[in-house]
């Protein structure tokens, strides 16, 4: 890939998350009242509980290298409070 195209795509990639955060903020500023009903609590609970379990389950199917093991050790030492997935050696 040419250097100019690589630099442009890298710049766009770095700007994507701040752009999404600003867009979310603009959208949320137009919301007058947020109602937390049972459906919202169920959706949040499922996403917070099932998504990590799905990721850890899928990750266990693949062999991890030394770099990944070091990352899990680092991440678990900074507040990974999931008791069923203790990756410290």
What is the topology?
Elements: H1 3-29, H2 38-60, H3 66-77
Morphology call:
flat
For the residues shown, what is the average pLDDT? 76
Query: Whole-number radius of gyration?
Result: 19 Å
Main sheet attributes: strand count, strand direction, barrel closure: none
Query: Helicity range of the residues?
Result: 55-70%
What is the CA-CA span between the terminal residues? 41 Å
Which residues sit in consecutive blocks of at least 5 with pLDDT less than 50?
76-89
**SS element count, helices:** 3
Q: Quick one: how many beta strands?
A: 0
- Quickly give the structural class: mainly alpha
SSE order = HHH
How would you explain this protein's 3D organization?
It is a single chain. By secondary structure, the chain is mostly helical. The model is unreliable at 76-89 (pLDDT under 50). The protein has a domain at 39-81. The chain contains three helices and no strands. The chain has helices at 3-29, 38-60, 66-77.
Please provide a brief summary of the model.
The protein is mostly helical and 89 residues long.
Descriptive keywords:
mainly alpha; disordered C terminus; 3 helices; flat; 89 residues
């Amino acid at each position: 890939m040419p250097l100019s195209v690589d630099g442009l795509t890298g710049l766009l990639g770095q700007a994507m998350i701040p752009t999404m955060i600003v867009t979310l903020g603009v959208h949320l500023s137009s919301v007058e009242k947020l109602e937390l009903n049972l459906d919202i609590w169920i959706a949040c609970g499922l996403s917070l509980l099932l998504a990590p379990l799905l990721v850890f389950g899928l990750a266990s199917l693949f062999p991890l290298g030394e770099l990944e093991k070091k990352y899990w050790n680092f991440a678990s030492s900074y507040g990974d409070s999931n008791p069923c997935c203790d990756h410290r050696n």
